[in-house]
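Worked example 3 (structure in, sequence out).
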């Protein structure tokens, strides 16, 4: 696609002697046709579509005309004008806008008045010139006056003003170049949305400060709309509270989950430490066994001698028989070996007495 070119306007001649034709459309609105003369200075010879597509001299742009109502100017309008502007490498786009009288007569009432529609077109980047009060049906005189080479419009027959197609004679003359409509967007669609949701937009404008008189709303409907606005505000508050409550619950759940994880980790750590200390092979059991063995060693008596010495006899008393074969009561044998030694010593004593 060829990019948008700057519109032409008459200026001083350059080195070639040909006048310059450039206007910065991105910094100024497009001019009205009745406020400027035709800016095509070169001889205006009739062009074919093939010649126009090959390109023309700078001082001889292809003059393309597109017309319409352009009520509630939207992207569909802009795309149609973009297509008209980029049909040829060197083009100058004139846009005709019908007046309120013609529009109301042949099509119906508009939302925007003619002055608003003119201004909307002047500030579209693809438009080089705006023709106010454009005719409903194009005449040879109008085409000649504005030196129009081609007319751009969608190819659907446009029946109006007693004609099956108001562009029929343009098509027969080989001056018609079709453009494509943008599906899903039109002025009628926008108006349908507003009518369908009238209550919503009426309540919206009441909230924004418009009066019931300005909106042509009855007293009862005004009270109804204001009540509905209050109900909507309460619903919004409840919704906000619910959302905040959900956020709070989610935060609590996250924290609870973290606490449970920490508790599980601490529990596992505690159980591991407990088993390490008190388990079958734990340190506590080893320590208890060591202490028990120490206590048993401390409480167990030392082994007594095999035989006890006989008492010395007192010279002042009569001798009394000694019974060396009796076991020592104070130190009982601590083991079987000691007991056998004691018995053997007793038998030896008996043999001495014999």
């Amino acid at each position: 696609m060829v990019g948008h070119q700057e519109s032409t306007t008459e200026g001083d001649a350059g080195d070639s002697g040909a006048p310059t034709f450039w206007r910065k459309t991105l910094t100024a609105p497009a001019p009205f046709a009745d406020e400027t003369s035709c800016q095509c200075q070169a001889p205006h010879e009739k062009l074919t579509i093939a010649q126009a597509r090959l390109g023309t001299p700078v001082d001889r742009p292809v003059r393309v005309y597109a017309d319409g109502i352009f009520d509630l100017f939207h992207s569909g309008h802009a795309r149609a004008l973009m297509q008209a502007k980029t049909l040829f490498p060197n083009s100058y786009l004139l846009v005709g806008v019908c007046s309120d009288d013609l529009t109301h007569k042949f099509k119906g009432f508009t939302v925007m008045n003619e002055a608003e529609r003119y201004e909307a077109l002047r500030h579209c980047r693809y438009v080089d010139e705006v023709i106010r009060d454009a005719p409903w049906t194009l005449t040879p005189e109008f085409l000649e006056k504005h030196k129009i080479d081609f007319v751009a419009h969608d190819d659907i027959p446009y029946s109006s003003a007693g004609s099956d197609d108001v562009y029929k004679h343009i098509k027969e003359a080989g001056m018609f170049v079709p453009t494509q409509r943008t599906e899903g967007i039109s002025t009628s669609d926008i108006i349908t949305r507003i009518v369908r949701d009238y209550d919503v937009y009426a309540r919206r404008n009441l909230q924004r400060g418009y009066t019931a008189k300005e909106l042509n709303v009855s007293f009862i409907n005004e009270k109804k709309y204001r009540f509905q606005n209050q109900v909507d505000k309460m619903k919004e508050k409840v919704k906000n509270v619910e959302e905040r409550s959900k956020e709070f619950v989610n935060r609590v759940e996250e924290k609870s989950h973290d606490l449970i994880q920490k508790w599980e980790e601490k529990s596992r750590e505690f159980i591991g430490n407990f088993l390490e200390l008190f388990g079958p092979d734990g340190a506590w059991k080893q320590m208890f066994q060591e202490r028990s063995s120490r206590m048993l060693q401390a409480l167990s008596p030392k082994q007594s001698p095999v035989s006890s010495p006989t008492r010395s006899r007192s010279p002042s008393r009569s001798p009394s028989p000694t019974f060396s074969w009796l076991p020592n009561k104070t130190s009982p044998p601590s083991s079987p070996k000691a007991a056998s030694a004691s018995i053997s010593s007793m038998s030896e004593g008996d043999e001495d007495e014999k």
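Notes: The first strand starts at residue 7 and ends at 13. Strands lie at 7-13, 19-23, 62-68, 91-97, 129-132, 150-154, 176-179.
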